[in-house]
Amino acid sequence: MLGLLEEMADQLERTPTLAEFAEVFSRSVPAEDARIDIERSPAVIVATAGNKRVSGDTAQVDDLEDHVYAAVSNVFNVLVTTWPGSDAPKLSALLVEISEVLREMPAQSVTGVGRNTRLKLQGPSAHRRPQPGDVVSIPSGKGGYRLAVVVARNRFGIAYGLFKGRHAIPRIPGNDHAIYPLPVYSDDRSVTNGTWKILGTRESLLQRFPRDPVIYHFKGPAESPDGTLRELSEEEVVLTELAKSYYNQAYMSHVLQDELDQGLCKVGI
Length: 269
Known about the structure:
Blueprint: H1 2-12, H2 18-27, E1 44-49, E2 52-53, H3 66-81, H4 91-103, E3 117-122, E4 134-139, E5 145-154, E6 157-162, E7 184-186, H5 189-192, E8 197-201, E9 215-216, E10 222-223, E11 229-230, H6 234-240, H7 253-262
Antiparallel strand pairs: 1-2, 1-3, 4-5, 4-8, 5-6, 6-7, 9-10, 10-11
């Protein structure tokens, strides 16, 4: 734990705050780890002092490098592998252990920690239906995870905005993370059955995608969720490659998961 705090301090060029420490853990919840009973989805970890939540500016957490989050994952892994008994520990119980260690850290390693400091779990019950702004991790058959944000729910289904790349550790992407320009429609079955995990909610990511994505009909107009039809712009024609016979923009979620591994060439991904 001390090494994690030292790494955060090195990258932030100052002592990390308790709020930043909690935010890093919140973004690093091992949502895909079957060894842990995660009671909330998305699992939001907050710092408290007594019954009061500790707040603060956590914007600089966006700039931390991946190995900080890898260090957090290692903390969870050590706790799980040394956990007594055969039952999967609850995430809330792991946070009790982490809180105890945190209170024992040198005072200069993190600001805002006191004897009543706790890390606590918040969020709705697990396996809820995803809502716009929710970020989900999609397991890849090639290893790691792909990331998507729920852009909209409408009569076409669930619109997912997709982020480029595969990630060994699934965590919420920054606002400048590379995206694929066309959201894809699917369902939420893979979320509600636990295959895709909700990592958290970041409404700021919605600005990267169309608010109500249209469906591009083959060699035809674009249809909005309210049924309005319009002709495509030249840019949209090029983007969607409508001249190709294999264009598709909607998939069942388990099919979408497989198609992502194949490159999802139907939407230029």
